[in-house]
C-alpha cells in the first residue's frame, strides 16, 4: 500500500458528528454491546468449525477470541478519545492519512452491505422451512423493507429494535448454557452425563483441522465494531465505549468459548446434525427437550434479523462519515431528522442487489463478491492496530486526559496482535478455499488504496 508522510492532515470532522442525532441511550448501547457478540456467525457458522476441528474448536475460539479482545481494546481506546460514526475509518485517517480512512471505510461498507444480503437469504431459508412453497426472495424483500424503514426513522428506533433483539439472544444463549452445564454435570432430569467421552479424540483432523477451526472462528466474531459506531450517536459516547470494551473479555469467554465447550462435550463432533441443523439445535435435540430445537431456530432467525438491522445501520453511518470527510458523493451525507437517509437507502439497495445476484448469477458474480469480502475484517483490524500505535503516541504527548480506555501493555500487545493477524494471513494462504478470498480481498484493498492515495495527492 502507498505510504503516508509523517505529517498527516487532520480529518475535517469534529470528535462527534454534530448533525447526527444523539438518540441512543446507555441501555441501548449496553445491550448492543452484549448482543453484538452473539452474532449470526456464532449460531450458523460454528458448525463447520466443529466439523473440522472437533473438540479442539474450543482452543480455536480461545485463540481467535484473545486476538479479538486486543482489537476491541485498541478500537475502544481510540473511539473513547475520538468518538465518531466513522469509527476505525476516521481513526485511520487521523493516524495514517486520508487514503487509509478511504480504504478502511469503503471496504468495510462493501462488507456490511453484502452481509445484509447474506443474512436476509439465511433468514428467508428458515422462514420458508416453516412455510414451504413461499418464495425466498419475497421474504428477503420484506425483511429489507422493514429494516430500511426502521433505519430511516429516528436512531432510537434502531436502538429499540437492537435492544429487544439482543435481550432475546442473550436470554436464549444464557438458558442454553445453564441447561448444557446441568446436562454435563448429570443433574438435568432425563439426561445422562456424557463425561469426557466426546472429548477423547481432541484433535481428530490434526493441526490442519485446528487451523480451519481458527479461520472459521475468526469470522464468527463480526459485529463487535458496531458499538463503537453507535456510540457517536449516544448521549455519553465515552462512557458507552468504555463500558462496552471493558466487558468484552467476559462476554467473549462466556458466550463463544463457553458455548463451544458445552456443545462439544454434549454432542459427538462428527455428528451430521452439527452441520445440518446447527450446533445449538443439535445440542438441544440431543438433550431430548421437546420443541427446544425449534425454539433455537427462532433464536437463529432473530440473530440473522438483528445482524441485518445492525449492518444497515453501520454501513449507512460509515458511508455518512466518509462523505463528511470528502471521500464520497455528497448526496450520501445529507442528514434529515438526524438520520443520513440517503446513505441508509443506498446501503439497503446495495444489499438487495447482492440478493438478486445470488439468484441471477449464483455461479460467477455472487461467489466473486463473497470472495472479495472474505478477508476484509482482517484488513480493517490491521488498520485499527497501526492507527492505535500512532494515535496512542500522539495522545500521550498532546492529550493524555482523553485516554479513558487504555490498551493493555502498550505497545507490546499491539505488536502481538499485529503478529497474530500476519499469522492468520499465512494460514489463509495455505488453505485453498481461503487463499482465493485472500487474493480477491487483496485486489479490492489495493484498488481502494490506490484510489484513496490518488485522491489524497489531488487534494493536496
UniProtKB/TrEMBL annotation:
Q: Where is the signal peptide?
A: none
Q: Which UniProt keywords apply?
A: Amino-acid transport, Membrane, Transmembrane, Transmembrane helix, Transport
For region Disordered, the annotated ranges are 1-20
Any one Pfam family match given in the protein's UniProt record, by short name: AA_permease
Q: Which Gene3D superfamilies match?
A: Amino acid/polyamine transporter I (1.20.1740.10)
Query: How is this protein situated with respect to the membrane?
Result: Multi-pass membrane protein
Q: Which PROSITE patterns match?
A: AMINO_ACID_PERMEASE_1 (PS00218)
Transmembrane regions listed in the UniProt entry: 29-51, 57-75, 96-117, 137-155, 167-190, 210-232, 252-269, 289-308, 342-360, 366-386, 407-430, 436-454
Residues in Amino acid permease/ SLC12A domain copies:
28-435
* InterPro entries noted in UniProt: AA-permease/SLC12A_dom, Amino_acid_permease_CS
What protein is this chain from? Amino acid permease
State the source organism's domain of life.
Answer: Bacteria
Subcellular location(s) of the protein: Membrane
